[in-house]
Design a protein that fits this description.
five-stranded parallel sheet; binds phosphoric acid mono(formamide)ester; binds norvaline
């Protein structure tokens, strides 16, 4: 079924219904197949896309760039050292200038407020390419990967081990709640997800009746039992590198190693990571390189899911 996502922002994933997310995943699959079949697209012909990056990026930047060019559009990379934003000009004015020239804006940076303000003042669709709080385009790639590998989303037991209050844990909780997965955060108590976000996710479960569940625990051995997917992320996110020494101490028991995968009791458990990974910290090299690990299929899926995000909101569909 086709949904009209025209002119829609993607700021947190909170405002997309499960049906709209399903539609984006279907469109991602179709766009992935289209590229595999060597069919050149024109869905973004004549469209200009601004890519603002305050923080570094490999996957997100490349996915936005290739996705736009594949469909005939023009991406413009704007590092914060290249533009006036944050130096001479505030977000509100930058938004109003870019909105006069570009058809859509991607933003990666620190504050969620910045991406919200770009959306408020630019007058064009804005896509969150990661902030301190959320990483919604990554969740689309993660859901697509799980759907491809397991053939379903509903009822999948998905365990996130590590920093339960970072952008990935927050966004995965939202995405899993919407799509009916059993989402578990295994983290030390001091890194349990912000109760406000947990509350919002319980409300999502109630509103969508997706059949999903949420559990937050510090008992990682119990948490992983019968898991279909084990997910982790860096112990110190971009901008909080000074916390690494403390994190190493408290997160060591949550490292994804072969012993932890065995504790799932599932010989086919999948290992996912948004990447970049710090091997030897949140995941061992052995797990990362094992047959459980689908991290490069997941990275590949950033492109078609981002393509679907852009095309659905500004494309000539
Ligand atoms: N996963 C992800 O967002 O990767 P980048 O930081 O390389 O964009
Ligand atoms: N939590 C990580 C995700 C990187 C894609 C960070 O913000 O650095």
């Amino acid at each position: 079924m086709a949904f009209n996502l025209r002119n829609r922002h993607l700021l947190t994933l909170k405002h997309h219904t499960p049906q709209e997310i399903e539609y984006l995943l279907d469109l991602s699959r179709d766009l992935k197949n289209k590229k595999r079949d060597g069919i050149k697209g024109k869905l973004l012909a004549g469209k200009n896309v601004a890519l603002i990056f305050e923080k570094p990026s490999t996957r997100t930047r490349c996915a936005f760039t290739v996705a736009t060019i594949d469909e005939g559009g023009h991406p413009e990379y704007l590092g914060t050292n290249d533009i006036q934003l944050g130096h001479k000009e505030d977000v509100k004015d930058t938004a109003r200038v870019l909105g006069r020239m570009f058809d859509g804006i991607e933003f990666r940076g620190y504050s969620q407020q910045t991406v919200e303000d770009l959306a408020k003042y630019s007058g064009v669709p804005v896509w969150n390419g990661l902030t301190d709080d959320y990483h919604p385009t990554q969740i689309l790639a993660d859901l697509l990967t799980v759907r491809e590998k397991l053939g379903r989303l509903k009822g999948v037991k998905f365990v996130f081990c590590g920093d339960g209050r970072n952008n990935m844990a927050n966004s995965l909780m939202i995405g899993c709640a919407k799509m009916g997965l059993h989402f578990v955060v295994a983290a030390p108590t001091s890194l349990h997800t912000d109760p406000e976000i947990v509350k919002e996710c319980y409300q999502i479960l109630e509103d969508t009746q997706s059949g999903g569940t949420i559990e937050i625990t510090d008992d990682v051995q119990k948490a992983v039992k019968d898991a279909d997917v084990i997910y982790t992320d860096v112990w110190a996110s971009m901008g909080e590198e000074d916390k690494l020494a403390e994190r190493k101490k408290i997160l060591q028991p949550y490292q994804v190693n072969m012993e932890l995968l065995k504790a799932t009791g599932n010989p086919n458990v999948l290992f996912l990571h948004c990447l970049p990974a710090v091997k030897g910290y949140e995941v061992t090299e052995e797990v990362f390189e094992s047959h459980h690990s689908k991290v490069f299929d997941q990275a590949e899926n950033r492109m078609p899911t981002i393509k679907a995000t852009i095309v659905s909101s500004i494309g000539n569909l």
